[in-house]
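Re-run with default settings, no changes from the original entry. Doing this only to confirm the output is reproducible before filing.
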Amino acid sequence: MEETLNWLQTRLRLDDRQLTKLICRAPYTLGCSVSENLEPTLDWIQRRLHTLDEFTISRVVQKMPRILHLSIEANLEPKFDWLQHQFNLDDDELGKMVQRSPTFLGLSIDTWEVKLDWIERRLDLTDQDLSKFILKAPSILNCNIKANLDLTLDFYIDALGNEREAVRLVTKNPSLLAYSLEKRLKPRLEETRDAGILIDAGCLRRIGQYTDDYWKMALSFVRDHKELGIIALP
């Protein structure tokens, strides 16, 4: 166990807090052999994602420690090859995709295909448009169709009252489909309406994409200057 901890901390350049967090997320890592499992897998990942530096690879592993436990031959290599073929990615684009959201690698190719079929059909995208869409927000591959994607798209349609406009908004801003309905989108829409702010596509984009701090600041600005007739978020 001590050998594994020392290897992880040294190889991934982790401080004590980062090491503890990684082990808490994947405690089974402590039962793996460094020489037979962890080191060969990490070496392969670094060679395969050669456009990413060591610090970026470390962040990928910290986001998804399970990647060190996936079979190279039966899992990682087929998935990387499939992604490059499906989206016509070069090595640099593949690296950036994995860097943005490595957790989707924990899902099967069959699961990806079902979600991609839904996105392509529901948003009426061409294959080229679909590739651009996923590259902008690969985290969407982690979302469940019924529990997330379908309901979130309906949220934008209902808020705008125009399906075509809502689809256009989401197509241009793929990340909007990945935000939590209950924790972010619905509460912010209610706050927006209470503040008398005009609900349009730009407003909904800000509702989704603003950080918590910036959201509070923008909402406060509108409320404080209501007498000036401001009805749009800055």
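The mean pLDDT is 94. DSSP finds 13 helices and no strands in the chain.
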